[in-house]
Every structure is written in structure tokens, then in C-alpha cells.
């Protein structure tokens, strides 16, 4: 069974990755992990309670978002994964640790080619040990 990692950033363009997977892979040939990485800034915050509140809020929002996207893949084997950190590095780390066969990401909405890939996607393409599919809009 093929393992696919789909980074979700909360934008509607993330839906394009789900559409790509559901249009190109049957429910019995893939396992999917939806990943979202919260990169909230905790610098200059010294109060542990405020840090905990920010992390808890971010995790709750991510959980709601991931569940929404998971529901769009009815019938597929889908896991949700949330982590706090640098998006590119965490996506690569998860893809290696989970021995994924493919990462499916959407491109940015920016106009020129380099910017249209986006900094996180570009990082993932450069560092990935598996196939990376960039889905156009």
C-alpha cells in the first residue's frame, strides 16, 4: 500500500491536494496522513501560562481544520498529525520517519515560477527523499 503525506495549511488551495489524491488513487491502494505544522511565534513570551494557551489554541484550531479535510476523504484510510515547529523541516522529518512514498502539496497563489512554488514547498522539494507532487490550482 502506498503511503501519501499531505501537508495542509488551512487554505482552500489545500483542497486541491485532496482532490488530486482522490482522483488518482483508489481507496484501497493508499494510506494518507494529513499533516499541519503550527509555526506560532513564542519568542519574547516569558509567561508559561500564555505559552501554554497559545499552543493549546493552535492545536485546537489545527484539529478542527484537519478533521474538516479528513471528512473530505470519506472511505480512505486517513490519519491526522499536528506538530509545532518549522513547516518545511517538520514535513521532511515526518516523511522520513513515516517512510512515505509520496508527498502531495499545492503550489502558492503567487505569479512568478519561483514564488509560485512557495518557500515551504521549495524546501520540501529540495530535501525530500521521496516523490513530491506539486498540484496546480
Features:
5-stranded parallel sheet, 24% strand, alpha/beta, 137 residues
Global geometry: globular
What letter string, H or E per element, gives the SSE order? EHEHEHEHHE
Please give the number of β-strands.
5
Largest sheet: 5 strands, parallel
Strand content: 15-25%
Report how far apart the termini are: 27 Å
Output the radius of gyration: 15 Å
Strand order of the largest sheet: 3-2-1-4-5
Fraction of residues in helices? 40-55%
Low-confidence stretches: none
Outline the fold blueprint.
Elements: E1 2-7, H1 14-24, E2 30-38, H2 48-71, E3 77-84, H3 87-97, E4 102-106, H4 113-117, H5 119-127, E5 131-135
Helix pairs in contact: 3-5
Short summary:
This protein is α/β, with parallel strands linked by helices.
Architecture overview:
It is a single chain. The chain is α/β, with parallel strands linked by helices and 137 residues long. The protein has helices at residues 14-24, 48-71, 87-97, 113-117, 119-127; strands at 2-7, 30-38, 77-84, 102-106, 131-135. A five-stranded parallel sheet has the order 3-2-1-4-5, with helices on both faces. Helix 3 (87-97) runs parallel beside helix 5 (119-127). The longest helix is centred in the middle third of the chain and has 24 residues, at 48-71. The chain starts with a strand and ends with a strand.
Amino acid at each position: 500500500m502506498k503511503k501519501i503525506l499531505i501537508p495542509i495549511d488551512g487554505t482552500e488551495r489545500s483542497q486541491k491536494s485532496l482532490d488530486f489524491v482522490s482522483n488518482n488513487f483508489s481507496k484501497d491502494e493508499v494510506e494518507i496522513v494529513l499533516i499541519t505544522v503550527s509555526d506560532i511565534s513564542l519568542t519574547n513570551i516569558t509567561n508559561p501560562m500564555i505559552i501554554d494557551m497559545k499552543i493549546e489554541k493552535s492545536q485546537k484550531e489545527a484539529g478542527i481544520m484537519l478533521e474538516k479535510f479528513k471528512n473530505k476523504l470519506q472511505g480512505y484510510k486517513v490519519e491526522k498529525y499536528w506538530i509545532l515547529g518549522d513547516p518545511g523541516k517538520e514535513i521532511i522529518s515526518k516523511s522520513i520517519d513515516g517512510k512515505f512514498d509520496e508527498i502531495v502539496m499545492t503550489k502558492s497563489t503567487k505569479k512568478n515560477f519561483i514564488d509560485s512554488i512557495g518557500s515551504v514547498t521549495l524546501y520540501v522539494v529540495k530535501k525530500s527523499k521521496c516523490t513530491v507532487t506539486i498540484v496546480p490550482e
